[in-house]
Amino acid sequence: MTRSLKxxxxxxxxxxxHPIWQPTRPGKDDHCGWVFGDPGADKTLTNAEGxxxxxxxxxxxxxxxxxxxxxxxxxxxxxxxxxxxKYTVPILWDKKTNTIVSNESSxxxxxxNAEFNAFSDKADLDLYPVDxxxxxxxxxxxxxxxxxxxxxxxxxxRSQQAYDKAIEGLTEAFEKVDAILQKQRYxxxxxxxxADIRLFVTxxxxxxxxxxxxxxxxxxxATSPAILNYCREIYQMPGVKETVDMEQIKLHYYASxxxxxxxxxxxxxxxxxxxxxxxxxxxxx
Length: 285
Fold this sequence. Notes:
- By secondary structure, this protein is mostly helical.
- The chain has 2 domains: 1-104, 3-Layer(aba) Sandwich (Glutaredoxin), CATH 3.40.30.10; 130-284, Glutathione S-transferase Yfyf (Class Pi), Chain A, domain 2, CATH 1.20.1050.10.
- Helix content is 40%, strand content 5%.
- It is globular.
């Protein structure tokens, strides 16, 4: 999303991994994780434990890894000399030195915002302006703890007590977002910043995935007018819609964790993206 908003598509390429985790060393160990698409394959997939589906071997954008023939993200970590076992995405990969620059999304956002302006079509867009940095950092802190990460603490809670604590924090943070967006256009002030990107990517998944899959059903975006219209404005910004593939978002969540969804049944959902295409009212703020 940051790459698109900054106009870096011609300078930084993207390869989209397959949405459903698969074994990364079949027959050698039990690790399951991100694999690359296989567009030419005449086959279908199940979830990592052999249930659900059939799922395609590639969805739109799920290309083969173009430089090293890697079959999985784990292969790239191995190539970079990192075998600790947390083979996460996103990865910012250096094609010249053939290694990982960063795998931390918050760091990559700031790199794309500031370090590639010589190649950017929108170099004047600053997502981390100096005068708003204290507000952005403060918002990022509680949004990450209670929403970005809070949905996972709800979904993967292993006790009622842990879930209750997580959902309480999430609900309070959701209400705080709602209250702020009723009074100002963006979450950290009067301008669109990285804090809005970090919040939006959780909100856009909230109703279709988290309220069902992670049991965060105390609130919803669709029934919160200020948040809904905020999401509409961001979704309708040039270049953003193309970065949101709800089919693959849902495929990943509902089919990659057999312990949460044994048969990988994909709920039909409310067609939330159609709701985001409707007009917003944020220009009046």
